[in-house]
From TrEMBL:
<dbReference type="InterPro" id="IPR020578">
    <property type="entry name" value="Aminotrans_V_PyrdxlP_BS"/>
</dbReference>
<dbReference type="InterPro" id="IPR000192">
    <property type="entry name" value="Aminotrans_V_dom"/>
</dbReference>
<feature type="modified residue" description="N6-(pyridoxal phosphate)lysine">
    <location>
        <position position="199"/>
    </location>
</feature>
<dbReference type="GO" id="GO:0004760">
    <property type="term" value="F:L-serine-pyruvate transaminase activity"/>
</dbReference>
<dbReference type="InterPro" id="IPR024169">
    <property type="entry name" value="SP_NH2Trfase/AEP_transaminase"/>
</dbReference>
<protein>
    <submittedName>
        <fullName>Class-V aminotransferase</fullName>
    </submittedName>
</protein>
<dbReference type="InterPro" id="IPR015424">
    <property type="entry name" value="PyrdxlP-dep_Trfase"/>
</dbReference>
<keyword id="KW-0808">Transferase</keyword>
<keyword id="KW-0663">Pyridoxal phosphate</keyword>
<feature type="domain" description="Aminotransferase class V">
    <location>
        <begin position="38"/>
        <end position="338"/>
    </location>
</feature>
<dbReference type="GO" id="GO:0008453">
    <property type="term" value="F:alanine-glyoxylate transaminase activity"/>
</dbReference>
<dbReference type="GO" id="GO:0019265">
    <property type="term" value="P:glycine biosynthetic process, by transamination of glyoxylate"/>
</dbReference>
<feature type="region of interest" description="Disordered">
    <location>
        <begin position="1"/>
        <end position="20"/>
    </location>
</feature>
<dbReference type="InterPro" id="IPR015421">
    <property type="entry name" value="PyrdxlP-dep_Trfase_major"/>
</dbReference>
<comment type="similarity">
    <text>Belongs to the class-V pyridoxal-phosphate-dependent aminotransferase family.</text>
</comment>
<dbReference type="Pfam" id="PF00266">
    <property type="entry name" value="Aminotran_5"/>
</dbReference>
<feature type="binding site">
    <location>
        <position position="348"/>
    </location>
    <ligand>
        <name>substrate</name>
    </ligand>
</feature>
Length: 396
């Protein structure tokens, strides 16, 4: 065999960082089916199904619900560039790295960005949005639902209620939460939401599911200036995906056929399981994992409401962050370190999609205990795995 053209041979990893998570074999099989044209009538019905199932996962009746052809960041950017015009006021809630990024993206639209912050690991009390909007109105309130850098959940419904009472729209980054915990777009009154394919939905990275409420669409169609981004212009995107009225589809860009197959299969898996069962499975994995950590003498960083799918662990004194992660990777287990101020201080462990299950949780606890003990960490051997197993033995 010609060595110069070696076959692609990536390692088999257990992906327990903040995404991508492991991909269900059903999704990989869907991706191996034939590529057809992006305006083929057969593909148009696949698009319609995908939109319909995405509405179910987002718990919304919003027609304007599609996967954007790029990763989660593009969906967040799409919300900002479509909803904001130069000179508009936007209030951004910041509880970590991804909130900061939202503020950065918003500022690039020429909008006037006002921020509300909370200490890392906590959420913003909803009243603070009310104080800020009472002080000065805004067109949009934007915030992260599941802050992946700190493991904190920001409650959305009360903030949405406040935003609407003060005449503002609300846009959320639910990149980490969608498919792993409730994101109840209509019940909460969310006007725009953006997520990704590779975290709790468990498909490969490459798509960003977004949804826009009729109220958001009214604001978008009433813009004075053109959306700064041609690629992310929601009006152009829905000329291709279908605006819900005319049934003609206008070419915008070539739909990433294979990724849309992947998204369709990921949504099918989620809906077959049932959303509430899926949320409960993620919750249970978190409880088992947290019980295991506690039995090992480890503590969680997050002080506010903790996310089930993203566990942020304090690195114990005297333990080398990189050495532990290297040791785990040697056993084909990936976890992640901290961002910015939390670098070297925490590990971030994702329990997403197929990994929110007993086997991955127990495998990681065993391997983490071993890696820590090798560094001189003292704990009762086997206690972590036993504690996690005990949680799984309890009825749900
Ligand atoms: C992962 C993540 C993103 C970025 O998504 P990509 O798919 O990597 O572009 C944005 N926001 C949050 C909260 C995330 O966790």
């Amino acid at each position: 065999m010609e060595r110069r053209f070696g076959e692609l041979n990536p390692p088999q990893r257990l992906l327990m960082g903040p995404g991508p998570s492991n991909v269900d074999p059903r999704i990989l099989r869907a991706m191996a089916t034939p590529v057809i044209g992006h305006l083929d009538p057969a593909f148009l019905s696949i698009m319609d199904e995908t939109m319909g199932w995405l509405r179910e996962v987002y718990e919304t009746r919003n027609h304007h619900t599609v996967p954007i052809s790029a990763t989660g960041s593009a969906g967040v950017e799409a919300m900002m560039v479509n909803l904001l015009e130069p000179g508009d006021d936007v209030v951004v809630g910041i509880i970590g790295y991804f909130g900061q990024r939202m503020a950065d993206v918003a500022s690039r639209t020429g909008a006037n960005v006002r921020v509300i912050e909370a200490p890392l690991g906590e959420a913003i009390p909803p009243e603070r949005f009310e104080e800020e909007l009472r002080r000065k109105p805004a067109k949009l309130v934007a915030l992260v639902h599941a802050e992946t850098s700190t493991g904190a959940e920001q409650e959305i419904a009360p903030v949405a209620e406040i935003a609407h009472r003060y005449g503002a729209l609300i846009a959320i980054d639910c990149v980490t939460s969608l498919g792993g915990m409730p994101v109840r777009v209509d019940e909460w009154g969310v006007d725009a939401a953006a997520s990704c394919s590779q975290k709790c939905l468990g498909a490969p990275p490459g798509l960003s599911p977004v949804t826009f409420s009729p109220r958001a669409m009214e604001v978008i169609t009433g813009r004075k200036s053109k959306c700064q981004s041609w690629y992310l212009d929601v009006n152009l995107l829905f000329a291709y995906w279908g605006d819900g009225k005319a049934n003609n589809r206008v070419f915008h860009h070539t739909g990433p056929i294979t990724m849309i197959y992947a998204m369709r299969e990921a949504l099918r898996i989620a809906l077959e399981e049932g959303l509430e069962a899926r949320y409960a499975r993620h919750r249970k994995a978190h409880e088992a994992f947290a019980a295991g950590l506690e039995a090992m003498g480890l503590t969680l960083f997050t002080k506010g409401k903790r996310l089930p799918m993203l566990n942020v662990i304090n690195i114990p004194e005297g333990i080398d962050d990189l050495a532990v992660r290297r040791r785990l990777l040697e056993q084909n287990i990936e976890i992640s370190g901290g961002f910015g101020p939390l670098a070297g201080r925490v590990w971030r462990v994702g329990l997403m999609g197929v990994n929110a299950n007993p086997a991955p949780v127990i495998t990681l606890l065993g391997a983490l205990e071993q890696a820590l003990v090798e560094q001189g960490y003292r704990c009762e051997r086997g206690a972590a795995v036993a504690a996690a197993r005990a949680v799984y033995k309890q009825s749900t």
